[in-house]
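Sample entry (240 residues):
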Amino acid sequence: MPAGDLPVLIVGDVHGAFERLFAALKPYPADRWRTVFLGDLVDYGMFGVGCLRFARDRSNTDVLLGNHEAAMLWALRDSTRIGFWMSIGGQRHDLDELRSDEPLQRWLRGLPSLIRLPDRTLLQHCGNDGYLSLISLPESDPVKAINERVRDLLETGGEDQLWDVLSGPNVFATQPERLERWLELTGSRRVVFGHTPHRGAAPMRYHGGKAINFDGGLSRSHRLHQRGAPAQASVGPLPD
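Predicted structure, serialized as tokens:
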């Protein structure tokens, strides 16, 4: 079955939790699901690069750029940023592995920041409209324009700008006006994101499901993890 015809499986922030990720995906075979990772596969946990390779190689899978991938690429390019990257959970052995794996570097620098599904669901890393700072409006297709700008920045040493954008707080939970404007500008009916750990046992819905947060703290190594949160708070089918 073509990937476009498969049901969509969403994976929130993984942060190096390879074993929990593998267990959470067991009920969802890759050939039966289109899987979308919302970014932040690296840092805090010990197996960040392993998670990246797994996601890259899983069939019918898309991966979005997260702020921690941007920070890791920044540290790879500029050694003066390694200390900062490690302060946000970076594992030095992961950076060494990435440095020796040029195909993985190229793949990372080609990741999109936004995916708009055929049902007009917009997938992104953080629950924020700060992506608009990357382009000048009006644009006939802001999603395409933002992705093109992200790729340019990843190729030209603009990781610092991407870190700022992708680290934005979850404003959609409390500012419905900004959410509505973002949805209108991007031609979307709802937005799905991660980045900010929630406290629910399932993905957290806001404003009647127009915004859905899939970061349930999957990694037990994250400084903001919720010990009681089940994997289903971060990994599960896209709601109807």
